[in-house]
Design goal:
301 residues; mainly alpha; Growth Hormone, Chain: A; 76% helix
Length: 301
Amino acid sequence: MIVGLGSTQYVLQSGELYDWFADMRIVVFSVLAVIFTVAFCVWELHVAPHPIVDLRMLRRRAVSMGSALSFGIGFTLFVGIVLGPQFSQSILGFTATLSGNQVLVRALSIAAFIPIAVTCMARLHINPRFIMAAGFGLVGWAGFLSSAATASTSDFWSFGWALAIGGFGFGLLFVPLSVAVLSAVPPGDTTKVSAMLSLFQQLGASLSTAIMVTIVDRRTAFHLDHLAAYINMSRPAIAALVHSHYSVQSMAQLVTREATTLGFADANLVGGICALVLVPVALFFPTRKQPPAAVATGALT
């Protein structure tokens, strides 16, 4: 499992740098990813008497859909964790402390809404799937807000609403997902299912890191080509800069800065779209109409 997942992450993260399958390293690690992932699945399903990750649990609809949603939570959560500090420090010039405070804003928002999610299930008896759908909707909305706020002139509070709304959304996801899945399986299988949810969430986070970096690189190159096409003397603004002795090197740095900014904005938009795609998945999640209050309360601890 370690070799399979590690090789997959290496391919996704380094494929863009080494021109994908034109490089022998990417080919070798791709083969390793396929072989070891398949071997792990065969071992866990048919050989191991006590599997570490019991993949047979995925035969249950609630577990398979819950694993998909857990993957989505990990994926969308790390979009902000990966992109936010990179953009704020490399483009906006934030210190490590200031960019860390952005993560803190979202963390506090998550902590504020987790008790609300528990109250909605334990006391108001709201079906967890509706809470999860609302959570993914808020996360998607936050992705769009982050994309709109991503500019080379942004400051700390430009992302305030996006961070807060995204945190509110994640606060509505963690506990309801655990309650929805664990209440649908026998008590003896809860440990196996919990491990399954944790695995898929970590997998989503790992792949998010690799995929988002690739998207930023690709979209930055796209916008750089597009913006460079407009850098000519027929543009009055460009002619004015040239006549004011604005150096070509400074102009190139400005164009690269703006292209990179647009690349980060596109990546945030992709993260928002991914969250919105999970809204209907959450709505069709097979849950009990009124999950036990004890399960909801225990999930908080």
